[in-house]
Amino acid sequence: MKRQYRWIAIVIMGVLAGAVLAGCAVQGTNGATATVGRETHEQLNCVLWVQTSPEYELACRESYKLATLMLDEALYGLQWTALHEGQASGTLPPAVILDVDETVLDNSPLEARLVLKNREYNKEMWDKWVAEAAARDIPGAKEFIQHAIEEGVEIFFVTNRGHHNEDHTVRNLRDRFGPMITGETVLTKDEQPDWTSDKSTRRAYVGSTHRVLLLIGDDFNDFAYLGEVSPEERVIAARKFLDYWGEKWILLPNPMYGHWEQALYDYDRALGDAMKLNSKYSHLDTKP
Ligand SMILES: [Mg+2]
Predict the structure, then answer these.
(1) Which residues surround ligand 1, an ion (CB under 5 A)?
(2) Which H helix or E strand runs over 206?
(3) Cα angle vertex 85, ends 184, 245, to 5°?
(4) Centroid of ligand 1 to alpha carbon of 224 (angstroms)
(5) How far is the CA of 99 from the centre of ligand 1 (A)?
(6) Which pLDDT does position 55 carry in this prediction?
(7) Ligand 1 centre distance from Cα of residue 192 (Å)
(8) What do you get for the CA distance between the two ends of the chain, in Å?
(9) How far is the CA of 24 from the centre of ligand 1 (A)?
(10) Domain boundaries, given as residue ranges, for the chain
(11) Which CATH class for the 54-282 domain?
């Protein structure tokens, strides 16, 4: 190739590569656009797994199928309790406690919006999303709740959505699961002075009037309170409850967020984005 043509080719390739690196506009289903190059949002894969893969849907359905089997067994075990803090007499009416987000309601559309806008979780977008009260139900949740109600089991929701979000949350839950859901059975954070993000007091509240057969959630905090401990300590703590998981405690998959993710940057939510990412990278394990 003659020298002048080689330079022209290099310039054209440089322009094309620059266009790729600078990114191109893409559009999500909500009409929002984002610019992507190789540097994508770290949530991209997990949101797409939740939104497009049969594997996610089937993992949820498996969890609720297991929950249904265990519920039927638990109903006949009068000393059966899912509260590891201790509880309860078989004479109390049966109940199950479910978390809300990523347990019965799917917030992945908000996560998709964050990816497209290249944003982190923020309260403003969260409250706006909750006020839409349009979250879809998690696969399998509706069938499980219907079955539990047919068996005479009371359904309680213990959620760390704030009390200011309760009306929207109840409306969303009623639309998806039925009119029996009221503010009385949706126990939000700060609804009472001792109802903090540690759900233990709300579990005890339900346990004071009901025999709690199952806990269903997507975060360790939905089952037992650990505090802000390291990822390694979370794993060790989880293994102490092997008798509960899959029998009295039913776990839903949530790759998008949770205490597992906050533990990676020591729960320092005020930390800048770059520092959080650095901290996450430091947890990657390359040793076989
Ligand atoms: Mg949740």
Answers:
(1) 99, 101-102, 218
(2) helix 200-207
(3) 90
(4) 13
(5) 6
(6) 98
(7) 20
(8) 48
(9) 34
(10) 1-39, 54-282
(11) alpha beta
